Amino acid sequence: MEKKYYTYILLIEDNSLYCGYTDDVERRFQAHMVGKGAKFTRAHKPVKIVYTKEFNTKSEAMKEEYRIKHLPRSEKLKLINM
Description:
- The protein is α+β, with helices and mostly antiparallel strands and 82 residues long.
- It has one domain (5-80): GIY-YIG endonuclease, CATH 3.40.1440.
- The protein has helices at residues 25-33, 39-43, 58-69, 73-80, and strands at 5-12, 17-22, 46-55.
- A 3-stranded antiparallel beta sheet has the order 2-1-3, sandwiched between helices.
- It is globular.
């Protein structure tokens, strides 16, 4: 079985959004929850995963993360509500 990669968006306690990529969304979310995921989520508590998209390569997931991070909030909300 080939490895899959994911771009994900988390809803943060203050209603902000955090975007990242991983090969295991649930494991990464748990890391964020205990303060081991990213500097941002150590200071801003994640509430839930609100978006995931699967890719065949790490490069594709990273490119999508980059693209999403540069979107205005309104466009990120559109992605979440698809």
